[in-house]
Amino acid sequence: MDSSEAWLVLAIGNSRLHWAMFNGEALQQAWDTPYLSRLAIAYLCQRDRQDAPPPELHHFPYDDIAHLPLWLASVVPQQTTLWENHPNHRRIALNNIPIQGLYPSLGIDRALTLWGAIQQLGNPVLVIDAGTALTFTAADDQCHLVGGAILPGVLLQIRALVEGTAALPLAALPKGAALARWARQTPDAIRSGVFYGVLATIQDFANDWLRRYPETAIALTGGDSDRLYSALQANTPALAERIHLDPHLLFRGVPAIRQED
């Protein structure tokens, strides 16, 4: 990779840091990390340093990010301030995204993901982001925000059940295993109820969108998108065929924003 054309995107989400390395216009690598400590962030933001990296950075793929342009988008103000000492950072705000009708409280992550979908798929387009929150965000054929909806994602719903009741156990989704709809144990019943409830919500919003805009695109992204897309393929294959799965949709529109800067 030509380091003169390399640049980074950091999207600070509700529960993780989302990273992307670009070379020119091409996305080279994307990865997630937990939130980093103040010490680790200070280390990454230093251009000239003598000390060894903190242990939490031992598996960080790029050590020398202080010499690269860093495009920063965040929905967590407390985390944002920690990264503003990066010597070559550029903050992405709503007014950098050329979608009409964006309102001030709209999360920058939702706006960026919608702009990424427009760059990849055109518009009108609906974006379904199945992350910490499950969000629906849509734009019409005039690149105007139609609106959307927000509800807790899979893990947040499971945690809400656990925290709001006296005896329900925490029941994270098993990786790779088939999920029974009709459960005979309480943890499995929690998994089934939350997962198939989220799936039904996705189907309902997607079908309503297709009634409004029959010739349109739908994009699915976020940490739970792979599993939900597999379930859509099994349960509603005709709908799944209309949906474009893209785990890196959040980053797809940043090159166009960078060109306009």
Structural summary, described in words:
By secondary structure, the protein is an alpha/beta fold. It has two domains: 3-91, 2-Layer Sandwich (Nucleotidyltransferase, domain 5); 100-252, 2-Layer Sandwich (Nucleotidyltransferase, domain 5). It contains nine helices and ten strands. The protein has helices at residues 38-44, 77-83, 108-121, 154-164, 186-212, 225-235, 237-240, 249-252, 254-260, and strands at residues 6-12, 17-23, 26-33, 70-74, 89-91, 125-130, 133-139, 145-152, 217-221, 243-245. The strands form two sheets. It has a five-stranded mixed beta sheet. The chain has a five-stranded mixed beta sheet with strand order 8-7-6-9-10, sandwiched between helices. Strand 7 (133-139) and strand 8 form a beta hairpin. Helix 4 crosses helix 5. The chain is globular. The model has no long low-confidence stretch (mean pLDDT 91).
Summary keywords:
9 helices; five-stranded mixed sheet; Nucleotidyltransferase, domain 5; alpha/beta
What is this structure's SSE topology?
Layout: E1 6-12, E2 17-23, E3 26-33, H1 38-44, E4 70-74, H2 77-83, E5 89-91, H3 108-121, E6 125-130, E7 133-139, E8 145-152, H4 154-164, H5 186-212, E9 217-221, H6 225-235, H7 237-240, E10 243-245, H8 249-252, H9 254-260
Parallel strand pairs: 1-4, 4-5, 6-9, 9-10
Antiparallel strand pairs: 1-2, 2-3, 6-7, 7-8
